[in-house]
Predict the structure.
Amino acid sequence: MSPSFSVEGGWFSDNLEVELSAPEGDIYYTTDGTRPTADSAKYEGPITVYNRTEEPNVYANLENTTIGDNTYLPSYNIDKGTVIKAIAISDKGYSSIASQTYFVGLNEEDYLGVPIMSITVDPEDLWGYDKGIYVIGKSLDLYEKKFNLEKVPWDYVFVTPNYSKEGRGWERDAFIEYLSPELQKLYEQNIGIRIHGNWSVAEPQKSFNIFAREEYDGNTYLQYDFLSTGKDYTSLALRSGGTNDMYATKSRDVFNQSRFSDRAVGIQRAIPCNVFINGEYWGMYNIQERVGFNYIEQYYGVPESNTILVKDSESHTAFPEDAALFQEVSDFAASNDLSIEKNYRHMEKLIDIQSCIDYYCAEIITANDDSYHKNWAVWRSRNAGPSQYEDCKWRWILCDLDLTDGISYERNESSSDSFVTAGDVSPLNDDPLFISLISNPEFKQRFVTSFIDITGYNFDYERLSKDLMAWRDRIRTANIHSQWRFRGDYTFSSTYPDMDEYTAPYDEADHDHDFQVIDDFFKDRVMYLRQYLLQDFDLPGDYQDITVEYKGSGSIDLSVNTTTIKDFSGTYNNEVYDEYDVALKCQVPDGVHFAGWYIGGELFSKDTSITISPWDLTGTVEIKTE
């Protein structure tokens, strides 16, 4: 039986004494994250735990963690907690390891409002030359001995180090503890940890995946609902913000995805957190859902045994040939005229049309410069089944919306025409699936309608800016300290706004500036996109205002075309395209009588679902109940 601690880990204002006890045997312990053995310090009495911040950095100043452009190491003593790992050794052998982390005397104002995730892991498993998953390590040296470097792809330095390796063999066991935004300890669990990401693995602040496994502590799920979704997760990501945005807001992917929470495309929900590793401050991350079978089962009810998942053209099942099943969809679209109804009807059987449309809308609106040919994920049920989503149709999940919102490229400015210019591939020029689909009048109408709905509601600037600034304020201190820890004087792009004016250390003005770049991007984004939509899709009509107002007590559910607003009780304002009819629908709660739709004070219809010509929208559409 593992040792017990007289005081549970957590947040403390003053020094404390921690006593260890075990039913039998001698206790040995460490305070540097290493696994205790018989050669470790023997427990002889209470351990004094104090603020270790003024002690030299150990793991934070290791130099073998990156061969990327930024090699900055903190030039100051970072905040530190104390990790005590203990083991009992008796005639019966070794007990399991017990661990607790204590944060003593740190400034509360630096951490209040954002939770803390403490990770404890054997240093050799992260930073060791042979098997450390956070370092360049042995893997790159072996590669360089084997190959003539003048004849290998330039990117070998990103894909061959230890930190670029994937799979179960590069997972290490670890222990996590979680403190609330109010700095109260809520949870602890033994987990597995791996490095997460593509190009970002070469950055000093690497992202992680964490896994619950029965072999670690008997649990197959993470035992805390970090995201308040009510879902059971087998794994989550700790994401540092993408290759560039990790040095700015660390928020583009999270914020952009949040705008699509009510749409038919899957999103990865997230919350910010401060991370410590082996007691040393490791910066701000986002605890984020992962694209995987667990995600699909939790949100769509389709079990892994009946799911095909393809990400970036690669199958994530045990059958590599599954990737070809989605390629068959693109091939059919490219080789058949989808303006012909029977061909389009066949396509409707292969894909969820609305999910597909919402995916393209997300990439276009945010001007993602790293999409279509990569950073995409689709899934479907392998076989038809009883549940709603076991219909064998491909559906999309958003991921990696980091190179967006004016981050660093001319192609993702507010004025960018992302229908025709979007990185290496753009929807109307290079994407065979979209080009084929848009040739069908029915799909075109649905896409145009959806695009207007999303840009006018989900990306309404007033609401968007308010949400963005709230997120900015929430993470201000966490982000600033994270940039102190990892950025230094690094300038990640010469085309990023005002980059030439940046000087270290990163401060509040820099943080606010970086969020203002996003805000400025969206301020006029919809205006530009609405112009491009008419121009690029050869639409002869124009836009017309629509206002829907609820006149009644309580709330209803309102649908306007493809937008559904739960618990609607106010006013909806947007535009519609004047060549397409508008679909309106409302659902009233039990006990409430629907009186009708009124336009200009006159009753238009008593049906809860109506289709109306834009030319009949001569005034505010009122919904009345009794």
About this structure: The mean pLDDT is 96. The longest strand covers residues 185-196.
